[in-house]
Design brief:
This protein is of the alpha+beta class. It is built from 11 helices and 12 strands. The protein has helices at residues 2-16, 44-51, 63-68, 70-78, 170-186, 189-199, 217-243, 251-270, 278-300, 307-336, 340-367, and strands at residues 24-32, 35-43, 81-85, 88-89, 91-102, 105-115, 123-127, 138-145, 148-154, 160-163, 204-207, 210-213. Mean pLDDT is 85; it is low at 1-20.
Amino acid sequence: MRAIVIAVVLFCWGAVAHAHKPSDSYLILKVSDSRVEGQWDIALRDLEYAIGLDANGDGDITWGELSARQGAVASYALARLKVAVRGAACTLQATDHLVDQHSDGAYAVLRFAATCPEATGPLTVGYTLFFDLDPTHRGLARIESAGLTQTAVLSPERREQTFDLAASSVWQQMWAYVREGVWHIWIGFDHVLFLLSLLLPAVWLRVGRQWQPVLRFATAFWDVLRVVTAFTVAHSITLSLAALQVVSLPSRLVESVIAASVVLAALNNVYPVVSTGRWIMAFSFGLIHGFGFASVLADLGLPRGSLVTALFGFNVGVELGQLAIVAVFLPVAYALRATWFYRRVIFLGGSAAVVVLAGAWLLERALNIRLLS
């Protein structure tokens, strides 16, 4: 019992910092001749931390408070963005300030124009927003030119990237969305914890009222394959339906049910109710998780001219990221399956920790309150 308590504390301590959606901004550049029109969506919570927006300190940022700081927002952001065509720097100027709502809260919308000395050529984007404050921050960029769209993730490791607009193709667009899909499954902690909670018992068999280690790797492999396939098929269906705007559900409802699914999957390990049909649980809740993936894809933006390509690429990326997690987890779990450490710390302690963490997420999302910093 002591080991379980220690595992819960350590797991929650490490996971609290990742309990919410990571810091992202959304940058759109539309290129036409020697002029670039830009829109930059930046989270108000990030701007508040960087330059201060909440003048009266009441915890709420009003339109009046944001309006009073529009100049500071533009100066701070544009000083951390460089746009160049064929190596010649463009002049950036703010043109409008708005507010928009993303899946994780309110964002300041900064519209700007970039006047470039060169009319055509490779476009270089240099991005350093918030990197000095938050090394996990990412800029999700979308470059639109001549009816084609390219995407990129701008990070401290890849803060400057060049786009060959003339050479852009459908395959390049699809590959860009594949990368986005891989990245977003890796940072989608609720999706990952749901999947891992279902996979933890895969190296065991339920005999009577006890878990027993499987004798052959193939037994665990086929169990994992059923669970992962069911989850994949389910969230692919609803991701496609939501991205194509066939079905739409309220974001708060979706995020709450996702958190509840994580609680139930982990709780099932501690108090087993479903032991042989976990693929059914994976499929059922996977339908809801698909709507969660769709909200991420909506934030990234789907190019109208190649919507199906982008959707397919993102879906493939999610599956590749998911398979990478499974490829690491399964051999380790199989090797440790008969040990005290796996049974008490990883299986029971890890599952209990997930119940606590996901339970906090559920309360936050359902009641619109904040429990985790």
